[in-house]
# Entry
Amino acid sequence: MKPGSKSQPHTVTAVYGKGRTDFDEKSDHADLVKEAERLLESQAQDGDQEASFLLGQLYFEEGWYEEALQQFEKIKEKDLNALYQLGVMYYDGLGTQADHKKAVDYMNKIAECDTPKAQTLKHAALYNLGQAYLEGYSVKHSDAEAERLWLLAADDGNPKASIKAQCALGMFYSRPHTTDLKKAFFWHSEACGNGSLESQGALGVMYLKGHGIRKDTRSAFLCLKEAAERGNVYAQGHLVSYYYNNKLYSRATELARRISKYDDIPAIARTTDCLPHYITQGIAIALFYYARCLHLGLGVQQNREEAMQLYSKACCLDTDIFAELQDEVIFG
# Structure
């Protein structure tokens, strides 16, 4: 589960200006955190409920999960934000043993709350409950219940609802057992319009392949290019494929060379909020076409030894994608 509204930590460069060393930044950040902790503790002791939550959130963002857990536990009866974060922490086992039942119970409490102030959290909780039903965590697996909960969380594409649920529905309707590509296109369009980077990449591929919408290579290129520039690795891989298939080999190799250096998929997932599975696919696609260009000397000096290494790496990352791309190259 993901936190519903994680605030962005202060950056030292924003506060003190540019040109400082890494050591300076770490030192200044530690000082900022220490000062923020002192102020929030003082305000919390004076009965400031928001400060009490922000103190727990500060601990959470700094990765001090045991301290965050203790702080949120103190205020969970009065603060739905704290209850939500506890649900996240018990689900993922942050600062405590994972307890999916308790996490689901907390999310249900939020989902059942009808106060206007709870609406944003309610949408987030409904999304997380849908994920629990899809994965069968503490509840019986049910695609139908996951779909129902995500539809509630997505709220007809409301930008103030759960954008994650809108994107999840796009993925859900693209699965082999729940395929409805027109619905998939609709929900990825809603999520993309509301800012989802994951859905923007998915839309590019749907336009490219004519899935759920008439094939439109110009719209595909625009979606993929913008998503790629925003850091969507799945889009970057398909953009390499687009360049290769349109004989723009220099562009294909230039982009694929950059992608070939990606070595920390979990970190990319955290930064972009994209699923590791699709990041892996994007890298595999890029490596395959980079290998192809090196093998044949297209847009780059021929190097068959390096090409074989990249073919092997692409296959290890995703054997299904590798086999699919091989078939496309062989059979067209």
In short: The two ends are 41 Å apart (CA to CA). Residues 3-20 have pLDDT under 50 and may be disordered. The first helix runs from residue 12 to 16.
